[in-house]
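pinned: reference chain
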Amino acid sequence: MKQLHYSSSIVGTLLSLLCFFGGYRVHGGKIIGPWIPMFKGVDHSVSTNLPANSADQLQVVHAIRVDLLDPDISLYSSPRIANYSVNSRETAGYTLKDFLRIHQLQIGINANFFDPSQYNLPAGTPMVVSGLAISQGVVVSAQENSSHSASIMFTTNNQPTVRFTNWPAASNVGVFTAVSGEYPVLVKGIKAVRSTSGIHDLNPRTVIGVSQDRNYLYLVTIDGRQDGYSDGAYDDQTAAWLLAFGAFDAVNMDGGGSTTLVAQDSTGVPIELNHSSAVAGDQFGRERTVGSHFGVFAKPLPGFINNVVALPDDTAAAVTWTTLAPATGQVEFGLSTNFTDSWELQSMETTNHTVLLTNLTAGTDYYFQVVSTSGGSQYFSDILHFATTNYLQTNELFAVDSDWKYTTENLDGINWSTPAYDDSSWPGSGPGLLWVDVRAAGPNPAVTPKNTQMPADPNNNGFPFGTYYFRKHFTLTNAIAGTSLALSAYVDDGAVFYLNGQEIYRLRVEPAPATIAFGDLAISYPCSGDATCVDEFWIGGDAATNLINGDNLLAAEVHNYNAASPDITFGTALSATVPNAAEPMLSFNSAGGSIQIVWSRNAFALQGATDLTGPWQDLPGPIVTSPYMAETTNTAQFYRLRR
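pinned: its structure tokens
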């Protein structure tokens, strides 16, 4: 692996910024960065120290302070995985950025220790969590022994309890969220100093703490293992940082390469705040997949423009917001942050604003910004993001047990993945799953259906070949603009997929632009090493542009994890998703003296008339969200939706 180093000039720049923004020095050479508001109830500080000599540690510390009394703050931890099983399938492994993106959190940090702890496992890999973990009142991992038993537990209103040794396990009654670490580093304001070996040695740190009055939560990372940037911290140094930030009790969570702190930007993109040693030490800059996360939901900081909400549909989106004083309203938007479009200015000044954007493209990401003018001053919201939906009809093209042609010949330099290539000389074919497993104990019975046994490599001590090639023709009859493919694959270990000769997806192999050749090895493996869980992914956009009506070819090359791996497996189901226009449903319900009007789609404005032929007018607002309560009258009232 290539090692990425940070020069001392970066630290000098950091120190300059700390001084500029009001950082202050405390005992021991620490420069504590100011608390900068990030979200409502959430502040961020970046700190470092000034080593007195070359033997001292250089440390860069990121801290998040969360106001637990803020009514808009919610806490969240990794939930149970589908098909949950104790000590087998407890959580789904994700990078912290993916965890934030999936759950739409604003702040996230890694939490409990977990297994398996290899780098770069695929998203969704089943994992087992160490110590107590509770998500939204549901026990994800029970405290089963004294290991990893330092727990922080929260009620539904975010009030914390710290148990420095949660063994015998405390009752979970009333606990809504809980995470656990290996041991406390700060107990009632006193450093819990341990040894300086093993986990207590100089390491990157993830620490979670609370203030004495229990009003504040601290999420802290100390970067390490990066010469010239940050070395890491011992337990007593970690405790000293937490004390400086205002913590009274604190727990050492999973650190090392897992140490990661991420925040969501205004467009919904997760940004890494610290410099993870795993990312810095990986030649492709990949973040580690971890099995336990802790996150915070928070609202944006208040300003003149507030409560900005986008309600997208397929080809339209309603954008609503409020202003502190009557103001005009306009929305600028486009496919990037360099806005190319703006909606007609709403010149009537009001405090509640609604703009209906139309003629958008289905299934597309848009960036937008709200602009309001009041009293001659112009105000802008953050740059935000929404994605239009795409109503789809899904048709299965072939199932996982369909037939494939395969070969083990070296095809480097041969255009074998195109439909025109002649595979009649390939030695094998058969239905999926296609497999090899030469373990003395026999194949894993959980890998199913094992339909076609392929040959092993006689020149590799009877182990499987390092690479197997697969081809399958399929017919598509309704390909139109926006058509995409959905694959549900069982692959052990890694693969590259091709559509009509064009590479479309890499799974557990070196990422592009690296060239994948015959005999190259996969960089990871599925689940616990066997194809017992499905890899699901979509192929759309530019990757699906060479999908045609008629004959198409899906091809794959599957690579083993190492030369002595005793098994290899391949099979996939394929479906096509085609855009499908769907009309909104409008319905009426009687509710006392009012009529409740309900509709099924976003981004439609409600219109009313006293005659079926009109004139039709937007209801004041306009009204773009369902339901709407209409008062009954003695005259006929008609309603419809418009874009």
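why pinned: The chain has four domains: 8-297, 305-389, 393-579, 586-642. The chain is about 5% helix and 40% strand.
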